[in-house]
Amino acid sequence: MIDPENLEKLQNISFEERITIIEVLLHSLKNDLQKNVSPQPEYRSRPQRPTFGFMKDTGKILGDVVAPVLPENVWEVRE
Asked: So what's the pLDDT on residue 26?
């Protein structure tokens, strides 16, 4: 945080000097951010899989539904 004495000094300087101070602070922040950013892994393109049919022949029919999973008295009726 800026102490009151320095803040008063900053308020009394010219616009050009204020802009210079802001530019120096921004440059410093950019450098700090670049140091903390982890490098992004290089993008690897994967082979394009087909849009349709990629799961063909992967399912298995176990049988028909012959009874509810839960008894009727457990069902919640909403109106």
From this structure: 92
Q: Residue 39, Cβ neighbours under 10 Å: how many?
A: 5
Which SS3 state, helix, strand or coil, does residue 73 take? helix
Q: Record the tokens describing residue 46, joined without a space.
A: 């994967």
Output the average pLDDT for the chain.
81
Residues with Cβ < 8 Å from 68, sequence gap 6 or more? 75
What is the C-alpha to C-alpha distance for residues 24 and 32, in angstroms, rounded to an integer? 12
* H helix intervals, the chain: 4-11, 15-36
Here the tokens at position 72 are: 């009727």
pTM for the complete prediction? 0.40
